[in-house]
Design brief:
single chain; alpha/beta; Rossmann fold; six-stranded parallel sheet; two-stranded antiparallel ribbon; 8 strands; 15% strand
């Protein structure tokens, strides 16, 4: 998938990071949408970094993306601690609205893939309500089997989508893109994790003051404590150890 010229400045665990500001990211996306070149984008958060440390195939798939963004204050801190000056957090919620505005501006078609049945439909409705005229040409839930991959690829290609958002969760979404990107016609392919669930509720899912204080993780934990307690306790401790071990190793 590496068809872009982005060069990572360093790694957090096994995962490369692209040091880029939001303005630079949007310029890169705009150039891709205008010229119809190929660009793949994903994000890494502490949970993904820990998962990749236990799964070499996942690490390899993630490192094949053209741009790998720091999704979360923990990743930004870790990258800087390890000598990679990532300028800011850039998760899907940070630049998603701007991305869809660019799709509308350039008249590019969007396909939404993932989440539970019905979620992508509600996400599409909210996006079109916010951006009338946005061309969402295809929707498919993420509850499909591996043997259906070929059929899903055919549906996406038949839609004529220029942009594909894949929200299948980690590691599935990264591995799915690594496997199927060569067969997809979409020029911009991006992972989204739980972003479709956010869009299905509201385009601006995080309250502004939460986003401004960078307490997104705390808001998510408050909303979904049963699902996320392990991520923000045991896995966070493992992430800190992963970063500390990398720092110690780099000084030996």
């Amino acid at each position: 998938m590496e068809t872009d010229s982005a060069i990572p400045c360093g790694y957090v665990g096994q995962i490369k990071l692209t040091p880029i500001k939001k303005t630079e990211l949007m310029a890169r996306i705009a150039a891709t949408l205008e010229k119809k070149t190929r660009l793949t984008i994903s994000t890494v958060n502490p949970n993904y970094a820990v998962a990749a440390s236990h799964n070499p195939a996942l690490a390899q798939a993630m490192n094949r993306f053209d741009i790998m963004l720091a999704d979360g204050t923990g990743i930004v801190w870790a990258a800087r601690y390890l000598g990679c000056p990532v300028p800011e957090r850039l998760g899907n919620d940070d630049f998603g609205s701007d991305f869809y505005e660019l799709c509308l501006k350039f008249g590019r078609k969007v396909f939404l893939l993932g989440a539970r049945p019905g979620v992508a439909e509600r996400a599409a409705e909210n996006l079109v309500d916010r951006l009338p005229g946005l061309a969402i040409v295809g929707i498919h839930h993420g509850w499909f089997k591996p043997e259906e991959d070929g059929q899903i690829v055919e549906i996406i290609n038949a839609s004529g989508a220029d942009c594909l958002l894949v929200c299948l969760g980690t590691p599935r979404q990264q591995l799915w893109i690594a496997k199927n990107a060569p067969k997809l016609h979409a020029r911009l392919i991006m992972t989204g994790g739980g972003y479709l669930d956010h869009l299905a509720e509201a385009v601006d899912w995080y309250p502004k003051w939460i986003h401004r204080l960078r307490l997104n993780w705390l808001y998510r934990f408050w909303r979904e404590p049963r699902r996320l307690w392990r991520r923000y306790t045991l896995e966070m401790l493992e992430f800190f150890w992963l970063v500390l071990r990398a720092r110690i190793t780099s000084t030996l």
